Amino acid sequence: MTYRITLTDTSDSFEVQPGEPLLEAAERAGFPLVHDCRFGGCGTCRIKLLEGQVAYEEMPMGLSEEEQQQGYALACQAIAQSDLTISAEVFPAGYIPPDYHEATIVSLEKLSHDVTHLVLSIPTASEVRFLPGQYLNIMLDDGTPRSFSMASPPRSDTFDFHIRRVPGGYFTERLDTHYQPGDTLDVELPLGAFKHDAESARSLLMVAGGTGLAPVKSIIESLKDEPHAPHIKLYWGVRKAEDLYLDELLVHWARTLPNFSYVPVLSEADQEWGGRRGYVHEAVCQDHPELNEFDAYLCGPPPMIAAAKKSFSERGLCIERIYSDSFNFTHELNDSVA
User: Fold this and answer.
1) CB–CB of 67/46 below 8 Å?
2) Distances 195 to 32, 272, 285, 306 between C-alpha atoms, Å
3) What is the CA radius of gyration of the chain?
4) Domain map (residue ranges) of the chain
5) Where in the numbering of this chain does the FAD-binding FR-type domain appear (predicted)?
6) Which CATH architecture is the domain 203-326 placed in?
7) pLDDT per residue over 60-112, tens digit each?
8) I need a surface site. Which of 24, 25, 307, 338 has the fewest CB within 10 A?
């Protein structure tokens, strides 16, 4: 049987078929719920269940046990078990849908032993006002996408990316050997709902893991020169010192920007490292037993996101003020070829 889903914010409603995820039913009915990855990893499509029940074929990684207990669900994976009343965010009327463009490689520069700085020129996207924090898809010859966050704020027709080589990855392993400046790539943008909440006046707690720094850097750069820029605390977690591929820039920002601080954290530090050790979310909690003064922005691998959400919510940070972008390399690994 079908169930009726009511959006409490607008009183609109739509029907969902048996076994159909809520996100698919909402899109079919013309209600574009905010979402991103579509496989339950990022948590962007989180909704609040006010009435009714849902089930999952498999519990999504992007939904913590605490969130589920508080009545939250992920629309991309949730399957209705009854009529529902939900509170959900819908893309606004001015939402810019993604489109396809041709990009030209401007430069390829090694930032570290396994991270490449890719600069693309996309002349036809000069009018695309992507939001700092969003990403694009690079479309491969077989039509499969590879997703990479913009590492710089909107500026003309050039776009920066930090691309980590994934062992066995079809695209990332060939980036430095197969591609060169002047080559063209088909891309799709803008994508993603990870962005700064400009209506909030709270300080920003930004936590990045590895190349999760890219969208965080884009947001910071878009804010740092504003006359009333918020206070920003950045914690960047990597394994070893050699992985801090933008450490010099971030140290410079910390010295010159009045409202910015930076803490690098190494999980596999050697004896020469004199800074913070352990997992990045643990360093945050050691420094801030109470987190209710912040909005948190998390970007990195799914386990980091899950651990940070749990720890931060236990320290008073409301789950609605934790924004996350979860990196996942499933597609890169599954179809890698020689």
Assistant:
1) yes
2) 17, 36, 23, 19
3) 20
4) 3-87, 99-193+330-334, 203-326
5) 98-197
6) 3-Layer(aba) Sandwich (3.40)
7) 988 888 889 999 999 999 999 999 999 998 876 556 678 999 999 999 999 99
8) 338
Q: What is the pLDDT of residue 11?
A: 86
CATH of 99-193+330-334, one of 3.30.830.10, 2.60.40.10, 2.40.110.10, 2.40.30.10: 2.40.30.10
Q: pLDDT tens-digit profile of 148-182?
A: 999 999 988 899 999 999 988 889 998 988 999 99
Angle, vertex CA 160, rays to CA 244 and CA 167, nearest 5: 55
Distances (CA, A) of 71 to 19, 68, 319: 20, 5, 12
**Summary mean pLDDT of the chain:** 91
Q: Are 149 and 192 in contact (CB under 8 A)?
A: yes
Cα distances (Å, whole numbers) of residue 145 to 59, 136, 177, 281, 315:
25, 9, 19, 30, 37
Within 78-202, strands assigned E span 79-80, 84-87, 99-110, 115-121, 135-139, 145-149, 158-164, 184-191
Q: Residue 177, SS3?
A: helix
- The alpha carbon dihedral of 325, 334, 163, 151 has a sign of negative
- Could you identify the residue written with the tokens 């010159």? 256
Q: Which two tokens stand for residue 39?
A: 């496989």
CA angle 105, 110, 111 (to 5 degrees): 115
Kindly report the CATH class assigned to 3-87.
alpha beta
- Asked whether 172 and 233 are in contact (CB, 8 A), the reply is no
Q: Where are the alpha helices (DSSP H) in 45-139?
A: 65-69
For residue 90, give the DSSP letter: B
Query: DSSP characters for 264-313?
Result: EEESS--TT--SEES-HHHHHHHH-S--TTEEEEEEE-HHHHHHHHHHHH
Cα–Cα distance for residue pair 173/184, rounded to 1 Å: 17
Cα separation, 133 vs 209, in Å, equals: 15
